[in-house]
Amino acid sequence: MRERTNQGLIDFLKASPSPFHATHSIARQLDAAGFRRLDERDAWHLEAGQRYYATRNDSSIIAFRVGRRKLLDAGIRLVGAHTDSPCLRVKPQPELQRQGFLQLGVEVYGGALLAPWFDRDLSLAGRVTFRRDGKVESQLIDFRDPIACIPNLAIHLNREANQGWAINAQNELPPILAQVPGEERADFRALLAEQLSLEHGLVADAVLDYELSFYDTQSAAVIGLNRDFIAGARLDNLLSCYAGLQALLTADDEESCMLVCTDHEEVGSCSACGADGPFLEQVLARLIPDGEERVRVTQRSLLISADNAHGVHPNYADKHDGNHGPKLNAGPVIKVNSNQRYATSSETAGFFRQLCLENEVPVQSFVVRSDLGCGSTIGPITASRLGVRTLDIGVPTFAMHSIRELAGSHDLSHLLKVLGAFFACRELG
Fold first, then answer.
1. Domain with 358 in it: what CATH number?
2. Binding site per annotation, positions for Zn(2+)
3. Alpha-carbon distance 77 to 99, whole Å?
């Protein structure tokens, strides 16, 4: 069972090199499970016992089951995660031709660890907007093959590299794609038009714009002497998206359940499709049109914000509070911060601890060292917008925001089990 669950995650990561692809991958599984796609431009007619989903910007998705129990009696069980990860995004006019090489200018998206991007086999994926037969259309593309690399400077030419080297994102991160002979000028948009033709059989009159990310082509894998770990890109936070999706797919139709996977968390969530935007509020308004009833249902509901946590690294154990060092493969982590960087309260933490106890799922806690700053999640953002009781949890991870992260191979099953129990839980406290 654990091996099948981990392989499902690996397949999901491979199919999801960008937030657009992650949303498409989730939608495809929802379609196969009989969920009905809703268009935000149409009127919605929602029925108890039915399953629905809606997307926004092709990079955020909200899926839900309308339970047979009345919302005013039962509330809604919400799980939130995010589809984006730190990466390198291609600039609008990216072509660089230096020393006979074609490179692309990139912008750093989110708080990426930059050093691991060097010497990796990179590909490119995302969304392309183009004109065809006089109409503007968009399509997802994925080159799949390794088409680029950011080679390190040899140690002979940079003797201080191992003493700490500040990476200049403007000058040192443009990936190399090819050698260009003579004075020939490269046209990146022509390359995208060719990819549209190869991948989708589309003949574009002109490529108008794009949102494209470089990614590591090395597949995620279960590794370690005893296969204790999962290594891969975008574990933060596609692991949580995948666990929430599988829990929703296996939930019954008794309780109302919702999975919220939004874009732009890594850059603050402030967008039309981010957690600090109106997407979730507008979906809830259409599910519960009456304003007073919606407030009453919200106060009977609970949100679990699932976003990876920092496991205690054996080489850097002093970066953790001595009493709050989450271990890999020891279960999901309740994240607490008195300054509301996490939205956990004693009541929501208590509810989750009891849920884990009842379902024999190990559980841990994390508080950042008092002399270090604390990251945040969609939890406080969603809680402040909706007024919903919220809990922040996550699977412990090493190398968060690296091009290749590491998690425990048992923890996905732990998370999936407790989220499944949450969606089935009759009383939310």
1. 3.40.630.10
2. 82, 156, 401
3. 57
Contacts (Cβ under 8 Å, ≥6 apart) of 330: 362, 364, 396, 408, 411
Instruction: Show the domain range for 392.
Output: 2-85+233-424
Q: What is the strand order of the sheet 229-232 is part of?
A: 221-223, 229-232, 405-408, 396-398, 309-310
Q: Which segments are annotated as binding site?
A: 82, 156, 401
**Spatial distance between the Cα atoms of 356 and 246, rounded to a whole number of angstroms:** 18
CB 398 within 8 A of CB 311: yes
Give the pTM. Answer: 0.97
For residue 148, being part of any structural domain is answered with yes
What would the pLDDT profile of 61-110 be if each residue is shown by its tens digit? 999 999 999 999 999 999 999 999 999 999 999 999 999 999 999 999 99
- Domains in the chain: how many in total? 2
The verdict on residue 208 lying in a domain is yes
- Tell whether 98 and 19 lie within a shared domain: no
Read off the pLDDT of residues 368-426 as tens digits, 9 standing for 90 and up.
Answer: 998 988 888 999 999 999 999 999 999 999 999 999 999 999 999 999 999 999 999 99
Cα 429 to Cα 427: distance, rounded to the nearest angstrom: 6
**Domain-embedded: residue 267:** yes
